[in-house]
Amino acid sequence: METTHRVVVGDARELSAVDDDSVELVVTSPPYPMIEMWDELFTELDPAIGTALEDGDGRAAFEAMHAQLEAVWDELERVLVDGGIACINVGDATRTLDGSFRVYPNHARVLEAFEARGFDPLPDVLWRKPANSAAKFMGSGMIPPNAYVTLEHEYVLIFRNGGESRSFEPGADRRYEAAYFWEERNRWFTDVWTEVRGELQALGDDHEELRERSAAYPLEIPYRLLCMYSTYGDTVLDPFWGTGTTSLAALCAGRNSIGYELEDAFRKVFADRVADVPELSRAIGRRRLERHREFVAQRRREGDEPSYEAAYYDTPVMTKMEREIRFREVSGLDPLADGDGYRATHEPLVE
């Protein structure tokens, strides 16, 4: 099995390198409006945003920033197949402008934008991130009423393009081999994720400016979403590619990927990251098996023996749909002929 992983240096407001109805899944984390680290980028896209911020007009800046994101959402409607899924990781922002502190509800604004484009919202996920300090409030300390709740979570908003789910041929191997374990389903499909921790991006001293431009999520976030909402051989798009975490997850999960990124220098960072992909993909598959066997052992201690046997691994499973699970590992990785990405060879993971 082969997959391709293309990186396009360009503006995601026009995904000209992506054909209509050619992407099954979008997994991305856009720059969050009204977070100061993104002010310069948004102002480059629309100088009126900088003017609004200088004038202390937070509402105008907020709307203008989202207008830039909405141009990308227009493109996602075009490139996603019918029934394709878009997963948008976004956080709300708090900010003081013109002497007034308030929250800017990015998740609500993105939800509104996708609904306006005909996407069906699906149940979303709250990713609860660890607090950066022991203080659980902002404002005036112990004296009411002018303290504020801290934001310790982000959203993973999930949308389906159109009213119907994707259809597959009966018994499609690429779907059944991409199944997840029963206990993974129970953990992944809960609406609050508490065990996924944020991570600092180790870009190194040579990438100081890029570190300031990067707010990548942990690999666990896109990897889960790829496993939850796509099958082997599907194509996943990240229009805000950054350090390429979504593409890294796609490599490990046996999916194709396309990334759009304004900053060409991020491709060098990704080239450093992909060197470890064969080992990483193997480790992820083995760790999933290890965790499953730990789960089985616990069930047996509780007197509950799973009813079925996996076809490719020496382990019982809980349901018929899990029997064909077959992990993939990257066995080969070569640059594409045009230099704009990689071609990967995947082999079934063998213990």
UniProtKB/TrEMBL annotation:
GO terms for biological process: DNA restriction-modification system; methylation. One of its GO terms (molecular function) is site-specific DNA-methyltransferase (cytosine-N4-specific) activity. The keyword S-adenosyl-L-methionine applies. Coiled coil: none annotated. Its EC number is 2.1.1.113. The keyword DNA-binding applies. Residues 23-268 form the DNA methylase N-4/N-6 domain. Keywords: DNA-binding, Methyltransferase, Restriction system, S-adenosyl-L-methionine, Transferase. Belongs to the N(4)/N(6)-methyltransferase family. N(4) subfamily. This is Type II methyltransferase.
